[in-house]
Specification:
The chain is of the alpha+beta class and 236 residues long. The chain folds into two domains: 136 residues, Jelly Rolls (Sandwich); 80 residues, Winged helix-like DNA-binding domain superfamily/Winged helix DNA-binding domain (Arc Repressor Mutant, subunit A, Orthogonal Bundle). The chain is built from seven helices and 13 strands. The strands form four sheets. It has a five-stranded antiparallel sheet. Strands 3-8-5-6 form a four-stranded antiparallel sheet. Helix 4 packs across helix 7 and helix 5 packs across helix 6.
């Protein structure tokens, strides 16, 4: 990993949480304090249990966040892209990160230190309110995920995940615009790699999806949705 500087005001990433608040005069003094971190694919930039170093905002790239589970196995808890926030689960409640984070491709991150974030929260009420709504939304998603694991079988969880990444990252040339290994799919779906491979193979035989290496393309979104609609929600 290395550091470089990008300018928020000229950044083309309109989805960034910080970028959306640059019209506020109070934000000027804070955006100049941020640091940029450049990660290569597979680089880990947050280690679970280490001291908090502020919040990360994805300027460009894709990231997975993980949580250590039973027997030390890492469970993927989020997949994120341009504009998303990383490291917020431990911020404000403790002094250590509650998750780990890895770059899924070459990624540029904007890091705001603990001190800078606290200053923003104390002096920019519009930003604080928006962040509160963000936390509430994330809590709702977490509760949905808990219900999902309890009520969906393995095939349904894999389908739910495929629809989620299709919706979040979109498709280019018929393939979802994110590269995930079968193990990563299993980790996020809460199953084993062998079970994930079997479900994916079955969905291919049913011509519901296609694969090219680690990339997967959805061929029949309505049919996949129909399999999990009885649960009344999709992965978010």
């Amino acid at each position: 990993m290395k550091e470089e500087q990008t300018i928020c005001y000229s950044c083309a990433n309109e989805n960034c949480f910080i970028k959306k608040h640059l019209y506020l005069e109070q934000m000027t003094q804070y955006v100049s304090k941020k640091q940029n971190v450049v990660c290569k694919k597979a680089d880990q930039f947050i280690t679970e249990g280490l001291p908090l170093q502020g919040l990360y905002f994805i300027c460009k790239g894709k990231v997975k966040t993980v949580k250590t589970g039973i027997n030390g196995r890492e469970q993927i808890v989020r997949l994120t892209k341009n504009g998303d926030i990383i490291g917020f689960r431990g911020f404000g409640t403790g002094k250590k990160y509650l998750i780990g984070a890895y770059a899924l491709e070459d990624t540029v991150l904007c890091n705001f230190s603990n001190e800078t974030m606290l200053e923003i929260l104390k002096h920019v009420p519009e930003f604080t309110y928006a962040l509160m709504l963000f936390y509430a939304d994330e809590l709702n998603k977490s509760e949905n995920n808990i219900r999902k694991i309890a009520h969906m079988n393995v095939r349904e969880r894999v389908i739910d995940l495929l629809l989620y990444i299709h919706r979040k990252f979109g498709q280019i040339n018929g393939l979802i615009d994110i590269e995930l290994s079968r193990k990563e799919i299993a980790d996020f779906a809460g199953t084993t790699e062998e079970q994930a491979i079997r479900v994916i193979s079955s969905l291919k035989k049913e011509t519901l999806i296609k694969t090219e290496g680690k990339r997967i393309g959805i061929l029949n979104v309505p049919e996949l949705k129909s399999e999990i609609m009885e649960h009344k929600y999709l992965a978010i």
